[in-house]
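Q: Given only this backbone (168 positions), what sequence would you predict?
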């Protein structure tokens, strides 16, 4: 069964519903080198999703017409970082391909990810994520959607990061 939640011209589809060719097209998208350091590559996100327990991860692809433009992973339980409570969903690696950036698609994709998370895991109480302190575009998207900083800045894997949360 196909699950699509649309926002304007952007649509989302579960990675589980994509063909091998569609996954390969998604994995071939690129981001700038500094963005890759912060959120990883598209290929790494696809590979992580493929290797994970399907009950604990939801991979989403974002499309403009027939073209893949972005990806995000949503995780629960053991796949989430240790600081994420069991009743929460953690969001990882939301990225839009570099040729599609600057159009507000990240903001739309985040809204679609929230809708999909609520539908996929209706018992979840919160959405939680970590974002690098210097990633101003991502902070603007998340805080603009109503996420709040949950406390002090933490030392993350490549620098300082904010932990943001919102009720679902």
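A: Predicted residues:
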């Amino acid at each position: 069964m196909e699950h699509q939640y649309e926002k304007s011209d952007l649509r989302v589809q579960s990675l589980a519903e994509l063909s091998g060719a569609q996954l390969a097209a998604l994995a071939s998208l690129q981001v700038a080198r500094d963005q890759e350091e912060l959120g990883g590559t598209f290929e790494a996100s696809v590979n992580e999703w493929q290797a994970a327990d399907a009950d604990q991860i939801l991979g989403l692809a974002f499309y403009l017409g027939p073209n893949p433009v972005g990806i995000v992973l949503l995780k629960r339980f053991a796949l989430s970082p240790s600081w994420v409570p069991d009743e929460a969903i953690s969001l990882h690696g939301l990225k839009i391909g570099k040729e599609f950036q600057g159009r507000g698609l990240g903001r739309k994709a985040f809204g679609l990810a929230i809708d999909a998370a609520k539908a996929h895991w209706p018992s979840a109480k919160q959405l939680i994520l970590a974002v690098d302190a210097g990633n101003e575009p991502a902070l603007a998207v998340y805080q603009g959607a109503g996420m709040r900083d949950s406390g002090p800045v933490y030392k993350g894997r490549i620098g300082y990061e904010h932990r943001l949360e919102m009720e679902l």
